[in-house]
């Protein structure tokens, strides 16, 4: 894989040049002064710019408007966007990865033709899987969908739905057969967020942002043509959605930790330790910096290994759980060091959090936000369970069969 990356120097130069021309310096500062609506408009515009260059959907097939880039090209693209500290198109993420993976796996020809090109035109998707009593134990979800003529009528509540306040469509799991074993009675729907009976309530987070929402669904009529795959086959199809977030996109996150580490060193350069000496002369700080640097590089190698395995086997293995645990806990250590190095400044110079990049150099906000990553996409406790069972061969947790 590393050798493949070397031969892509021409593509790397092309992306680097494009970033120089298109990543507007000071975009983070500009976002701090604007309203939430302006921030969303900025993200949408950035997505259009990325798409025009062919960089928004590198993993998509040509048939649906993607660039069909090799994994090596995708890595180079993520590396260069990260090095240029380019914004992220966070709002487009679920559409680009989760919806694409789901529809190409199980969608009908009509569903693919209707929804995939629309994603590249800016349609925003959210995911309505988790419920107040069904997160780690997702199969225990209780939202009900009952067939009524040409529609299903849906009632229930979803929670933690990222980007739902701005979403046009939602990937929805609901129970269609309450008498079947819990994984067998779930169906997968595409929900138009403008349907009567859909209420979206943003959740205010500790960081000050409100990126995810509760969804209340009351007698929502979903046309049967929006059922993905067969009725009661939703659990199996949901695995395609979930594995999309365990795929090569982790390379983007890992690469951005390198940029984050440079920001930490920059903060350290400007910091002093109690007593007034430069932070960079302090042996303990130097030691922690070296450890963080090593961890960032090891994480990037782990990610490459995971992607190599993905290429060979065509599926994500248990190493995705190892990468997830290492990534999220390293993000916490890095941002914590940022807070410590910033001292009082970290507590008084707080600007608005922005979803466009989660290491922003606003270390306190970055640190608070970093805790999301040990929960999202399956908590680290659940990942450790998976590692113990699938890597170490330990027995399954009682009651989880
Ligand atoms: C930033 C973010 C974005 C998200 N976006 C979405 C989204 O767009 N759509 C969506 O549907 N969901 C989303 N989620 C929800 C996410 O998938 C759930 O929060 C996650 O699966 C955990 O579920 P829970 O919050 O219900 O916690 P619970 O499952 O109630 O877990 C509570 C605690 O118990 C522990 N625990 C539970 N079961 C076990 C076990 N068997 N062994 C050991 N420990 C266990 C957990 O690790 C955790 O510490 C998002 C979450 C976050 C943080």
Structural notes for this entry:
The strands form two sheets. The protein has a four-stranded mixed sheet with strand order 1-4-5-8. The model has no long low-confidence stretch (mean pLDDT 90). The protein is globular and about 75 Å long. It is built from 14 helices and eight strands. With 401 residues, the protein is an alpha+beta fold. The chain has helices spanning 2-6, 9-22, 27-32, 36-53, 71-83, 93-106, 109-120, 234-244, 249-269, 283-313, 319-342, 344-348, 363-370, 380-390; strands at residues 125-128, 144-148, 151-162, 169-175, 186-192, 198-202, 212-223, 227-228. It folds into three domains: 2-88, Orthogonal Bundle (Butyryl-Coa Dehydrogenase, subunit A, domain 1); 123-231, Butyryl-CoA Dehydrogenase, subunit A, domain 2 (Beta Barrel), CATH 2.40.110; 246-390, Butyryl-CoA Dehydrogenase, subunit A, domain 3. It starts with a helix and ends in an 11-residue tail after the last helix. The structure holds flavin-adenine dinucleotide.
Q: What is the strand content?
A: 5-15%
Reported CATH architecture of the largest domain: Up-down Bundle
Fold-level CATH name of the largest domain = Butyryl-CoA Dehydrogenase, subunit A, domain 3
Tell me the CATH superfamily of the largest domain.
Answer: Butyryl-CoA Dehydrogenase, subunit A, domain 3
The percent of residues in helical segments reads 40-55%
The count of domains is 3
The CATH class designation of the largest domain is Mainly Alpha
What is the arithmetic mean of pLDDT? Answer: 90
> Main sheet: which strands, in order across?
1-4-5-8
Straight-line distance between termini: 37 Å
Order of helices and strands: HHHHHHHEEEEEEEEHHHHHHH
Largest sheet: 4 strands, mixed
């Amino acid at each position: 894989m590393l050798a493949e990356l070397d031969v892509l120097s021409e593509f790397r130069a092309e992306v680097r040049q494009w970033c120089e021309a298109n990543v507007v310096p000071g975009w983070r500062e500009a976002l701090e002064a604007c309203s939430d609506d302006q921030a969303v408009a900025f993200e949408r515009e950035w997505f259009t710019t990325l798409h025009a260059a062919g960089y928004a959907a590198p993993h998509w097939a040509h048939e649906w408007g993607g660039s069909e880039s090799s994994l090596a090209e995708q890595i180079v693209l993520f590396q260069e966007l990260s090095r240029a500290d380019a914004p992220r198109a966070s709002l487009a993420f679920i559409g680009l990865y989760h919806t694409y993976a789901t529809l190409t796996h199980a969608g009908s020809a009509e569903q693919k033709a209707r929804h995939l090109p629309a994603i590249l035109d800016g349609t925003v998707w959210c995911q309505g899987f988790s419920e107040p009593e069904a997160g780690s134990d997702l199969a225990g979800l209780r939202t009900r969908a009952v067939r009524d003529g040409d529609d299903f009528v849906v009632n229930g509540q979803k929670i933690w739905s990222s980007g739902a306040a701005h979403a046009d469509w939602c990937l929805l799991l609901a129970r269609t057969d309450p008498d079947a074993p819990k994984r067998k009675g779930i169906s997968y729907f595409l929900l138009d967020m403008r349907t009567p009976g859909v209420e979206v309530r943003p959740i205010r987070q500790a960081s000050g942002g409100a990126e995810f929402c509760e969804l209340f669904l009351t007698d929502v009529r979903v046309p049967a043509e929006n059922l993905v795959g067969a009725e009661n086959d939703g659990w199996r199809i949901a695995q395609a959605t979930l594995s999309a977030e365990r795929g090569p996109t982790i390379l983007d996150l890992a690469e951005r930790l390198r940029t984050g580490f440079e920001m930490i060193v920059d903060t350290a350069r400007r910091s002093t330790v109690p007593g007034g000496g430069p932070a960079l002369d302090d042996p303990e700080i130097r030691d922690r910096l070296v450890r963080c640097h090593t961890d960032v590089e090891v994480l990037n190698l782990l990610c490459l290994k995971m992607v190599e395995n993905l290429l060979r086997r065509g599926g994500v293995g248990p190493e995705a759980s190892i990468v997830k645990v290492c990534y999220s806990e390293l993000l916490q250590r890095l941002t914590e060091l940022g807070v410590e190095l910033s001292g009082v400044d970290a507590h008084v110079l707080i600007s608005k959090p922005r979803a466009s990049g989660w290491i922003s150099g606003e270390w306190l906000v970055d640190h608070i936000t970093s805790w999301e990553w040990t929960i999202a996409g399956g908590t680290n406790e659940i990942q450790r369970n998976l590692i113990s069972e699938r890597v170490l061969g330990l027995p399954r947790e009682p009651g989880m069969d």
